[in-house]
Design a protein that fits this description.
By secondary structure, the chain is an all-alpha fold. It has 12 helices and no strands. Helix content is 75%, strand content 0%.
Length: 208
Amino acid sequence: SLGLESEGRDAFAGHIRYMADEEGGFWLRLGLGLASRGDAALAAAVFGRAVADAPASAFELLNLAGNRGIALDTVSLMKSVADGRGAGDDACARLGTVLKPAGYARNPVLLEALARAAMEAAPQCAEGYAFAGLALHQREAHQDAVALFRQAYALNRKVCPEVVEAFGISLAAIGATEEAIQVYRQGLEDWPDFSWLHMRLGNVYAET
């Protein structure tokens, strides 16, 4: 299934050893055991169950694959996440549980790959566009990031405050100051306790 060499298998095993069952730990450990025995088909089915039951499992698998250069069908995995259970049975929220930790990982190449897979798997969800924009923002490709953020906002502006912060920074970077102020003000309506938005808005005002 994953085609792991012993080093990659041991690293993955160590990472998921204490992962809670409700986060998919049981299915990931079972799948890894089957993969270690060479039962690729059954291991793939078990990993699919992990992803469907607990979206956090998808991030662990995709992060491992990205770091080890292992090819996975990310679109199929994202579809499994969207069609699975959890996160209030909201497909878009389930995608967010995979993409948000990918954003924190500060690996824009992996994040963009996952986000674009989410865009293809669930084009009705803002999460894919928002985190693809975040990936481009992390690479300082601000013009392209803004285009994706705008697509996300057309679907749902309330993905997470970190996306709002990045959107405003990218807008300011391309000279769209008024839009940046509007984005930050809307963000503060939605997340009034997110201190970074207060700071970013103050910075924009100070620079105008």
